[in-house]
Amino acid sequence: MNKLSTFYKKRFDAFLLHLTEAKSLNEDSVHKLRVDIKYMRSLLLLVDALGLDTDIIGKLLKQLRPVFKYSGRLRTIQVCRSLVLQCNVENQEKVIQILEEDQLIISNDFTLVLEKFKLDKFKKRMEKLYQVMEGIPATELREKADKIILDELDLIYKLWASSRGEENYHDIRKFFKIIKSLLQLLIAVESSEDLEREYNIVNETECTLGNWHDRNVLDEKLAKIQSFAPNSEFKSLVREIKNKNRSEKNILVKEFKQQMLTNFLKY
């Protein structure tokens, strides 16, 4: 195998491992599975740009879609529960109980999706893709990857310029994730201090947005819970948790803005 197909194989092998481990519904395993799928989707975007075998790519993406969708729903509830526990608010177990009831339903849906996943078919498609990758020149790979990275940065700049509010942060994070995965690939294929430096900056920024996203998801979940609150006492409890969560989210917003101004908008 060349460096390209070796890198892809490591990513897909990690996915298969975490796919098995996620059946336990362990929070860390579900998170790792989600991360794997996000990386794979970015890497498949690059393969598509190289004009190789779009039939394989389309089938792989289709097969990954339900796992990504339902693991996302489960991950959302798990993150919300974890963040509420960090609030240390009196009587917060009442909110935790609601989240755990939702988690039980979503866990059942996720388990069904994992059971339906056709592992043998997925492996055969990946083996076929590895074979196709063997003939890709390193220069062509770098050229295509650089173009995608520049395109994603252009989209980030446009979203940033269109509004200084938070409504575009989720999309901006998705573009940073694509850049991050492509930089990891380039580093694996051709070691470079410049690439390492760029990766560290992108990774730090994307992690800040990831933490913001978790807080934002909790904010939205709490708003729904509050709207169905049985009494004023419960509404007050949810409001207290929301205020603590928003305070942390605002800190992350400031951090992200500073990262953008320092690392991406200084030229």
Largest sheet: none
Write the H/E string, N to C. Answer: HHHHHHHHH
| Stretches with pLDDT under 50, minimum 5 residues | none
Global Rg: 21 Å
Q: How much β-strand is present in the residues?
A: under 5%
Shape: globular
Question: What gap, in angstroms, lies between the N and C termini?
Answer: 40 Å
Mean pLDDT: 90
Total beta strand runs: 0
Number of helices: 9
DSSP helix fraction:
over 70%
Helix/strand-derived category reads mainly alpha
Structure, described:
Helices cover 85% and strands 0% of the residues. It is an all-alpha fold. The longest helix is centred in the C-terminal third of the chain and has 35 residues, at 193-227. It is globular. The mean pLDDT is 90.
Fold blueprint:
Elements: H1 3-21, H2 27-49, H3 54-87, H4 93-116, H5 119-133, H6 138-162, H7 169-189, H8 193-227, H9 232-263
Helix pairs in contact: 1-2, 1-5, 2-3, 2-7, 3-4, 3-5, 3-8, 6-7, 7-8, 8-9
Task: Give a concise summary.
This protein is mostly helical and 267 residues long. The protein contains 9 helices and no strands. Helix 1 runs antiparallel to helix 2, helix 2 packs antiparallel against helix 3 and helix 7 runs antiparallel to helix 8.
List the keywords:
single chain
